[in-house]
Structures are given as structure tokens and as C-alpha cells.
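dumping this here before i forget
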Amino acid sequence: MKNILDDDTRPTNSVAERLAKTYYLSCLDQNSTIEALGSTPIDELLSQLGGWNISSSGFNVTSWKLQSAIELAQNTYSRSVFFAWMVAPDERNSSRHIITLDQGGLTLPSRDYYLNKTDREKTVTALKQYITQVGVLMGSNEEEAKTQAESIVNLELRMAEVTMPEDERRDEKALYNKMRIMDLQRLASFIDWVSFFRSGFSLVNISVTGRTEVVVLVPSYFRQLSVIIKDILAKPTGKITLANYIGWQTVNSLVGALAPSFREAQRVLQRALMGADGAEATWRQCISDTNNVLGLALSSMFVREVFDEQSKPVAEQMVREVKNAFKENLPYLNWMDDETRELAKDKADHVTDMIGFPSFISDRDKLDAKFEGLEMREAEYFDNNLRISQWMLLKNMRRLQRPSQRGEWDMSPIQVNAYYTPSKNQIVFPAGILQAPFYDKNYPSRSLNFGAMGVVMGHELTHAFDDQGREYDKEGNLKQWWNNRTIEAFQQRAKCFIDQYSSYKLNNDSINGKSTLGENMADNGGLKAAFHAYRGWLQSNTEFAPLPGVNLTHEQLFYVGFAQVWCSTETPEATHMQVLVDAHSPAKYRVIGTLSNSVEFSKTYKCKPTSPMNPPRKCEVW
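structure:
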């Protein structure tokens, strides 16, 4: 991508591509405009929010209003202070959209960093240093900045205490709490919610009243947050504390668009969290940023210049083979009743897939239409980020009066990832993952493709039937469609996975078998479906000759293909953060845990009974 973006001789075929290139150049900042501006851009933004007490943006405690500060931060500048909200598919009626609210607003990536004593000593101390240094850069003296940093962190600590842990958020039905805005007002009265939503939706000419429905994922959080905020407001310094928190959250979310001195201040926290300062080449960071905000435009160039389009039909065929293997296994699952089994097959038949990239990115007019109303300017990186945030917020709000549709890409096609969307019953495999090490049409054994990319395909398909995905029917609606006895049998088998993965440790961190349950099920189910798909492929195709110099069969190479994509090295801090925040198990145990459950793996590699990779008790659902 760097070569494409840096080459001025390559034509940019569309407005969308020019937007991406302009944003990229504004990020590179070859004229040092960002450094010259210093804190000026963020000072101007903070003054709109009523100021920040530890900056030179001006702050008047008498005129400052919590309501207007939250409305501006959330609905003008799209910053998630105190909570997060968006328009999303209604999970009980997936054809429509609904306003959805969730807990949020913490600087650190997990509540555990605030509540665990060991983490607090290291990471919270680094957070205070980071806030203090930013305050100094914005005009405060160090002692005052330290005092205000302490109050911000203390507020976030109280918010962390009422934040629901991730392992308690696995039950989708428990998270679906539909109510009217007037009911939300009674639940959490720290702001006027009708006024809050009107401040946003008025920008897109959508009417909101007290009877407008919303879904609140964690009502207990909003109820307790309201108590916390009212308690703070009752104190003489309450407004200052809340204004400082909102100011800080706004600054922190935009630090990457400020002068290098601000990014340098952030590194003390990055070192505490990751064991490294996170510094990377500017061009690499700028490509990543461009992909995050203008991924479809960037993908148009990637597909035209780099992507091997022959990969797409081959991958489409592989998805069909993996899906067929998954369905063919259903009759052998003796824990399911016949009716649920038939419904599961029907759901698998209804899973749609999107592979590579959407066709419209090759059509200039259609691609440009996706970015209508968005402007970029080469010397305005900070403002470009605000423009994108505001444009995306307006785009999201307009969905409230539009039906939910399959076929929308929620991830950039050049992303090396894949996903399943329960409300659409849809699996997506972007072009970015259809490359080595996951996929290469020139691999000397098809087994390597099935072991790597095939398992990813099986993994995403299995998500439709994991502990969360199984709660959605074939149309993507949240409803019970399983027999109660089958649910009980499923839960017993799920407990096997919870116990197995909870027994694994990395650097004295135990994996949370509950919060990683869905991903562990998907890894195990995906491996099995892909292996049987490969065997099915062999029935009508001829494999290459054995690899010279490698004393492995093609079936053994299948498992090599699976395992090698998870080769990685991480600092202890990064591993610790993954255990706390990632729904996936660490790479090591994605391999060991999954393979040790596989009967076919043990047979293929002739593992001795009761050996570590062939334990007598194996966990299996799909």
C-alpha cells in the first residue's frame, strides 16, 4: 500500500481514492504543520466543550453545563464520554435499526486495570503520568496537572467498579433491554435523554420523543453511573471533576492527531500496557489510520493494483466445501434432538458469505457515492479526523429510519481478519486475509490452504452456533429456537471448554474460559469442519506430490498450516492485556487447546494415548 500511495504517477481513479490519498498525506505531515500547531487545534475544540481546567482553553465553572458538554462531546465530536451509543440492528427484529446504549468511557482497556491491585500500581500510575504530561503540554503547571489527573483517575475508578465484566456479557438475551427514552430517564436521570438524542438526530432531521425506543445493554451501569455523577455534582469541586474527565477523554481520543510531543507523552502508558512504546514508522501508522477511516477507498486501490482476483472464486468454493462438511457432521451429534438439528441445518443453509471485496469498489460512481459529503484537506490532519468522526456519526444516525440490510461491509476489505454478524447471519472474509500465510493458490499442497484459510472459514461459520450465535435464528433474530434439553446438553459440553481453557496459564495469568468460550468453540468447530472439507476435496481432486525434504503427509501438513499462522512473540505486558481484554485465547493455546481436542489430529500424528496432545477427555460440541 505504501508504494501505491506514494507513487504520484499512479492515477487516482475516483473522488474516494483522492480522499484516501489526501488523508494519508495529511497524516505524513511532510511540512511539519502538525508540530507547528502544537495544542492549538485541541484548545479550540475544548473551548467549545466549555474548556478544560488544566489547559489554556479557558474554563468557567459557573457557566459550564454537564448536559451541553456531554451533548457536544458525543453528538458533535463523536467522543464516547461516560457511555457509548450508536444506531444498530434491532436484535429481536433484525430488519430494522434501533438506538443502542452501552457502558464505556474508561481510558484503560479493561476494568481490571483499575480494580486489580497489581495492575493498578503499575498501569494507573502510568495513566496519571500521561494525563499530567498532557496537562503540562497544554499550559498547566505540573502540580495542578497532577491534582486534576488524580481526580480524573478516581472518577474512572468508580466507573470501573460499576462496569460489567466481559465474562458476564455472554448472554445475549440478558443484554437486550428494550425501553422507551422516558424509561431510560427514570433509570439514569443525570442528563435529559430526550434533549441528548435530539441534539444528535436533529442534524439528520429525525424526530425523537420520550416514547422513542432504545436498547440498553447494561441497565445497572447507567443506574449506578447516575448515582456517581450526582454524588460528584453535590461536591464543591464536582463540576471541575466532570469537566476535566470530559476534557481528558476528548484529548486522549485525539492525541494521535496532535504534535509529536503529545504522542511522546502517551508512550509512558503504552509501555506499561504493552511493554513497548508502540512507536512505528510514520508511514506505517498513516496507512493503518487511513485504512481505519477510509478502508473502502484504500481497498479500491489494493484490489486493482495488488490483489489476485483468481483467489476469490477459489475461496468461494472452499467456503461451500467447509459449510457442507459442517452440515454433514450434524447427524452425528447425538446430544441434539432431531428438530433442533434440522433447524441448525436450515440456519447453516441460510448463512450468507461475502468474500474478498464488495463489487461496487470497482465502480467509480458507486464508490464515490459512499463518501458523499466528506471533505479532506492535505494540511489539516487534526480537522480531517474530526470531519471523518462527524461524517460517520451522521451516517450512523441516518440508519435509524432505514431497514437493516445484508451485504454491508463492516470491515475494510484489506483487513487481515474475518467476522460473523449474528443479526445478519453472515460471514465475511476480506481480501486482506486471502493472502499468505492464510491463503496462497501457489502453495505446494492444498492441505495448507485448508489448514489455514479453511479453518478460518469454519471458525466464522461455527460462530453461528457458539454460545452467543446459537441464540439467533436463521434470519438473525434473537429468539429461542432450540429444545430445552438440547440447550442443557450444549451447556454441559460448553463447560468442558470453560474448564479446559481456564486451566491454561501464561506468565501467571490464567485464561478466562468464560469470556473466551465463543472463540474457543469456533476454533475447535472450525478445525473439524475444515479437516473434513479437505478430505472431501481429496475424493474428487488429486493432491500434489509430497513435499521434498519434509517427512510429512498432506494431512499432517493440514495441521501445520493451521498452527503456523499463530506463530507470534509478545511481551509479558501484551500477553497480560490480551488475557484481560481479548475474546480469543492466546495464540499458543489456540493451537494446543484445539489440537488436543481433535481425534483426527491424534490419529494423523499417531499421538500416544494420554500424551499431552491426546488426553483421554476431549471437549467437543460441533
